[in-house]
Amino acid sequence: MFEARLDQGVLLKKLLEAMKELVSDANFECSPQALSLQAMDTSHVALVQMTLRSDGFAHFRCDRNISMGMNLANMSKCLKCAGNDDIITMKAEDTGDSVTFLFESPGQERHSDFELKLMDIDSEQLGIPDTEYSATVKMPSSEFQRIVKDLSTIGEAVLISVSKDGIKFSTSGDIGSANISVRQNTNVDKPEDATVIDLQEPVSLSFALRYLNSFAKASPLSSQVSLRMSKELPLVVQYRIVDMGEINFYLAPKVDDDDEMDNGNE
Amino acid sequence: MFEARLDQGVLLKKLLEAMKELVSDANFECSPQALSLQAMDTSHVALVQMTLRSDGFAHFRCDRNISMGMNLANMSKCLKCAGNDDIITMKAEDTGDSVTFLFESPGQERHSDFELKLMDIDSEQLGIPDTEYSATVKMPSSEFQRIVKDLSTIGEAVLISVSKDGIKFSTSGDIGSANISVRQNTNVDKPEDATVIDLQEPVSLSFALRYLNSFAKASPLSSQVSLRMSKELPLVVQYRIVDMGEINFYLAPKVDDDDEMDNGNE
Amino acid sequence: MFEARLDQGVLLKKLLEAMKELVSDANFECSPQALSLQAMDTSHVALVQMTLRSDGFAHFRCDRNISMGMNLANMSKCLKCAGNDDIITMKAEDTGDSVTFLFESPGQERHSDFELKLMDIDSEQLGIPDTEYSATVKMPSSEFQRIVKDLSTIGEAVLISVSKDGIKFSTSGDIGSANISVRQNTNVDKPEDATVIDLQEPVSLSFALRYLNSFAKASPLSSQVSLRMSKELPLVVQYRIVDMGEINFYLAPKVDDDDEMDNGNE
């Protein structure tokens, strides 16, 4: 038996909105510690990894580890039927072929249940090594979302350069070129407006803008986003979910003129 | 001579929005008692019946009964040109081939008139017998609209079941199944939030969701909707228009597994 | 060297939105007096003329007259990346082949620069003679925008008639006909709500609605629009930009039944 009750059901709705463009089918892994998911995007370029710790739920019971394969578009259809104030409960039998979502309105005058068929999905869990990154930038998630959206109108790839003073996003395309610089900025009224740079050594890497645009769909989950970069390592784009966990997106850098060797990673 | 002046012109705008998806052409019947309309939807499955009583108008003159055939899409185009605060007057000669809509802005600084050509439309008025229904449910119209919209993402038909405790909407489709239950609920701060059930005997009938979705376009006309159901009778979905009249939608039940006889009504 | 700094960068954004539907490519003419532009629309029927006086800029330097040919759709893409509160600076070398737009957020925490390639565009400047018009109507720009939009749902051309009492817009089409009259109205709480008519002699001219709809995209630039008309002369639709300049649209009248001679201007 798996049962997890989430008072802030809207978090699950936002998570699905953050993932469903990138990933079509995925296994939700249930263990006594957490509800988690790891999946490659449909073009096998980006990786999504999400964890919701069991202690963040109002109620969480997982008798034995199960894996629930779901089509994220269908799951999103169900969750769209939940109100933003609804309490959401997920339920599944250990050996069942379906999962049930219960939605309760705050005043209890409306109850809904949606039963979704489960799927068998082949997947291998990739081990993601713990790494010390050369540069970590925390910045407002809405600012990051706007920058990658704006630059997408000009070019297809973005060069992200981090120095101790700030982070610079550069692109170029047929119509011209663009640079957007955001300064380190900790002297703010609201902590969510801060831009904080933690730098071991300057780093400059190039990424496909269309994936960053997809990742940025997670912005409603958190007012801040963290970007972690090291030469030749995938970029990590992380959104923390208060008191519950996080969603991480991984994207390998593109080879560009700044790289000295051709690693075939185009 | 027919002339009817409506201080709250926005009502006529909302009525057209409620009908124009369902009905393409219809006769507006003018009598000294009322402006009314009855029409089948384009696929001849659902029936719309609207009545605006003459005493609800600021001024109403109808020298003899006339029938004005109009294309509702064209009429809607005209009415979209009226501001939401405008006073709307309809005018027609007894034997003319056009109807004129006058729009006056509240401060009288803008006057508009739109002359629309009338059409000859064959139609027979169906007699709708007065019936005692097994179950009548009054509920917030926005709630009903949301439920039929939500369920439409899962299935094509909805089973509506009314018991003394509440009303349940159920559907199923390729991706799974769904149930939404709304409890009787009269203990509310605002009367428009109440759900009231008047039950002679429990009833459970199945309907095509796409028609219910069309009916629900009338929600802006009234904060509450009434659903009336009896076994083997068409469902009545009613929106009252304060001090003026009402719009009723009729839809025959689908034959489903709960029915004992095949009445060919699919 | 050309450099112009505009504290209210949003004005430049709105100007582009006002022109980019009508004009595809145009030369921005820079002189010590002004930044200006004159261009025919893509179908060579309407003329746009814009002037931003140098004294309206926070900083303006123009060492010698230059002409910068730009694709307005591309320029608009760049300007969409500027925030509404951003300060915008345009920069170009006298003999360069690109123009640079700098965007500074109000708190200086974000700096962006966009370099746009310039184009060679053939264009001749038309001299627009100073004329005394028979009728000048100042009215709320939102009202004008709404009227031409509303009438576009009914017909393709509008007859604009100005008398001492008001201005009347008339159209007709397949579904019927429409007239919208706006009265002279100076007794208003807010000056931007006034409709003021300055009449030498009554005038009545017909114009293609699709161009008026394009012109009305300039409404965000000014709360009032001026329409200037004289028999057989192009209509002038003018939006003033406070403390900076103006944008004028010119459109030749259509020949209609009210005209006595066929000037082939269809």
Automatic annotation (TrEMBL), chains A, B, C:
Molecular function terms from GO = DNA binding; DNA polymerase processivity factor activity
Domain annotation Proliferating cell nuclear antigen PCNA C-terminal: ranges: 127-254
**Chief location:** nucleus
Give GO cellular component annotations, separated by semicolons: PCNA complex
Compartment annotation: Nucleus
Mind telling me which InterPro entries this protein's record contains?
A: DNA_clamp_sf, Pr_cel_nuc_antig, Pr_cel_nuc_antig_C, Pr_cel_nuc_antig_CS, Pr_cel_nuc_antig_N
Asked whether the keyword Protein transport is assigned, the reply is no
**What's in the keyword line of the UniProt record?**
DNA replication, DNA-binding, Nucleus
Q: Where is the Proliferating cell nuclear antigen PCNA N-terminal domain?
A: 1-124
Nucleus as a keyword of this entry, yes or no, is yes
Q: Which GO terms describe its biological process?
A: leading strand elongation; mismatch repair; regulation of DNA replication; translesion synthesis
What is the role of the protein in this entry?
Answer: This protein is an auxiliary protein of DNA polymerase delta and is involved in the control of eukaryotic DNA replication by increasing the polymerase's processivity during elongation of the leading strand.
State the family it belongs to: Belongs to the PCNA family.
The name this protein goes by in its record? DNA sliding clamp PCNA
